[in-house]
């Protein structure tokens, strides 16, 4: 039985609506406050929902809603720029298939599902201040309005205001040395990949692509020495970016140049500098707690940002259902911290390979086939993908996050 009656959630991205649905299942009423005025139509590129993310969605009955907007990504094929296939890895077959979704479609699906369940999502509410109250917390928004709850959950992304409110010394996002781009284009006449994402450590930049009869999509990570925020990168005309991207892939034996050539400038998604935060020291204070990128921002190289946010939403709701607030937050952090930081660190190593300079690149290309041989072993990454959460099981402080032997 939940010890609290209501929660206010700051941020209506991916983790916010997932947390509201999980809390509702735990008997806790939650309202979501989102800074933007309306739905994020057309914003963001493609991201993956890993098998563990789907397990977490299933725990709150939201997997079908997300599966309806995703397309299967059954394996990842690693290639060198010479066209050589280095490795193929897939999650164990007993797990749900990995999905490729466009962020705005994921966002729309989660919102629609939350609203269908009677959850209130208020737009145009940009949090500017957090106050601790004797029995809960109060949020103040830029429009002067306020909201109070027994707990306040900061699901407000990598530049979280809630994070700074509970720890003014909290770290800022770290630039990975890479700029992100992506787009859909037509695949006619290109060699189909089927439901497999091909990833290429190119001579000068990193390229990912999937080509199916009805749709093709690609993403690129370009080494860039200085950070560039999304708004700044978006000021460069898309035509200019497409030209620069095609130029960087000119020597690689991949469909990169052709796919970039087929991309309409208006379809190019310019993400800007890719970022992460290796460790957020303070996850909670009094009645305030962080979730998703606010607590554990991993770069897109992990393919896990959305999945980890959803996992955290589910675990936080279980903890608040079964334990008093202070213990719930401590147990939630214990269940989550080691796992998310391990995944953030793994992605950071991948980023270093992607951003390698000319000399490091030679070494990387020489060692890659050996590394891939080891990495291609599904047992090595099953811990990441196999993370079932039994929502109904009572939270026992100190117990494992998942059944013995699994992630
Ligand atoms: C616009 C956008 C585009 C993205 N595109 C990609 C992508 O292409 N590929 C990829 O892998 N990942 C992308 N991400 C990141 C990915 O969505 C997250 O890593 C992941 O889903 C974790 O979700 P989250 O809910 O913790 O954070 P987010 O999905 O970042 O959601 C945070 C939400 O909080 C809101 N917010 C922020 N500050 C305040 C405030 N002060 N008051 C109220 N609300 C606030 C934001 O508007 C946002 O809706 C994108 C994120 C955003 C916001």
TrEMBL record:
Does Oxidoreductase appear among the keywords? yes
Instruction: Say if the entry is tagged with keyword Oxidoreductase.
Output: yes
Q: Which UniProt keywords apply?
A: Monooxygenase, Oxidoreductase
Q: Give all residue intervals belonging to the FAD-binding domain.
A: 7-167, 283-344
Any transmembrane segments, and where? none
Instruction: Kindly list the GO molecular function terms attached to this UniProt entry.
Output: FAD binding; monooxygenase activity
Q: State the InterPro entries in the record.
A: FAD-bd, FAD-dep_Monooxygenase_BioMet, FAD/NAD-bd_sf
Q: What is this protein called?
A: FAD-dependent oxidoreductase
Organism whose genome encodes this protein: Dactylosporangium matsuzakiense
Source lineage: Bacteria, Bacillati, Actinomycetota, Actinomycetes, Micromonosporales
């Amino acid at each position: 039985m939940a010890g609290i009656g209501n929660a206010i959630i700051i941020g209506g991205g991916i983790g916010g609506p997932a947390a509201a649905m999980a809390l509702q299942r735990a008997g806790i009423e939650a309202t979501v406050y989102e800074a933007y005025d309306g739905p994020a139509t057309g914003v963001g590129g493609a991201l993956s929902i890993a098998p563990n993310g789907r397990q977490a969605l299933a725990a709150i009955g939201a997997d079908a809603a997300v599966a309806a907007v995703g397309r299967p990504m059954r394996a990842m094929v690693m290639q060198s720029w010479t066209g050589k296939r280095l490795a193929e890895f897939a999650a164990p077959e007993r797990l749900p298939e990995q999905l490729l979704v466009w962020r705005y479609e994921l966002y729309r699906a989660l919102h629609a599902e939350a609203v269908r369940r009677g959850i209130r999502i208020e737009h145009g509410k940009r949090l500017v201040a957090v106050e601790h109250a004797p029995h809960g917390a109060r949020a103040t928004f830029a429009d002067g309005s306020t909201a109070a709850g027994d707990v306040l959950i900061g699901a407000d992304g990598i530049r979280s205001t809630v994070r700074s409110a509970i720890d003014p010394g909290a770290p800022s996002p770290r630039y990975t040395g890479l700029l992100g781009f992506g787009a859909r284009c037509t695949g006619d006449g290109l060699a189909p990949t089927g439901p497999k994402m091909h990833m290429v450590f190119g001579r000068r930049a990193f390229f990912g692509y999937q080509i199916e009869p009805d749709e093709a999509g690609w993403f690129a990570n370009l080494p860039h020495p200085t950070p560039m925020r999304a708004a700044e990168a978006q000021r460069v005309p898309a035509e200019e970016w497409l030209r620069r991207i095609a130029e960087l892939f000119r020597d690689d034996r991949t469909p990169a140049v052709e796919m970039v050539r087929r991309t309409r400038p208006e379809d190019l998604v310019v993400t800007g500098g890719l970022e992460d935060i290796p460790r957020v020291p303070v996850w909670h204070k009094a009645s305030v707690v962080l979730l998703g990128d606010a607590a554990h921002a991993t770069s897109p190289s992990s393919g896990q940002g959305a999945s980890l946010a959803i996992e955290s939403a589910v675990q936080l709701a279980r903890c608040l259902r079964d334990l008093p607030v202070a213990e719930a937050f401590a147990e939630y952090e214990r269940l989550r911290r080691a796992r998310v930081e391990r995944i953030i660190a793994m992605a950071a190593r991948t980023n270093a390979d992607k951003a390698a300079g000319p000399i490091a690149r030679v070494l990387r290309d020489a060692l890659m086939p050996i590394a891939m041989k080891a990495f291609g072993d599904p047992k090595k990454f099953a811990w990441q993908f196999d993370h079932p959460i039994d929502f109904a099981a009572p939270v026992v402080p100190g117990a494992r996050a998942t059944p013995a032997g699994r992630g």
